[in-house]
Sequence to fold (183 residues):
Amino acid sequence: MAHNDKREVEVVVSKSTAETNREVASQLSNNLSRLLREFSRDFERRIWRALQARGYPDIRPAHGVVFANLGLGAVRVTELAERAQVTQQAMGKMLKELERLGYITRAVDSGDKRAREIKLTERGVQLATESQQVVAEVRHYYEHKIGSQELQQLESQLRFAVGKLELDYLPESWADPLSGDTV
Fold:
């Protein structure tokens, strides 16, 4: 009888360990960071698939950091790398690839001969324009799935949170499109 009691205790301990492991795994995989990452991945995946369908098979998701931080004016590699939170070497490699593909040009900065200005080519502007259209389409999809008001609330709350974080690497022009306030 005592032997059976010992077995019952072992089963309870094992079950408790298994439950603990499930709880830990759930906490590690089901948290704010993971939710934000999965939402972002889905949003970006939809954008890249639509861009490929529109005739941009050479554009990869990694290129997004360039376009998301470039804007339509000239900018320097160091500024792009800082905004994108990547090394200058990594940004330089992406820029060389995008230049080879015909989306950007790199020229000597007229104000500082040591620096290079990065500008969109006509093809790059076309891609940026179509990207904006695709983003609007993806946003519309999310409004349909989530609800327009809920999506606006989510975006507003995220903008508020990002603003409170005072992320100094974001460009000054990074603004709330609804209010015009910078983050």
Notes: The chain has two domains: 1-30, 31-146. The chain has seven helices and three strands. The CA atoms of residues 14 and 99 lie 59 Å apart. The beta strands are 75-76, 104-108, 116-120.
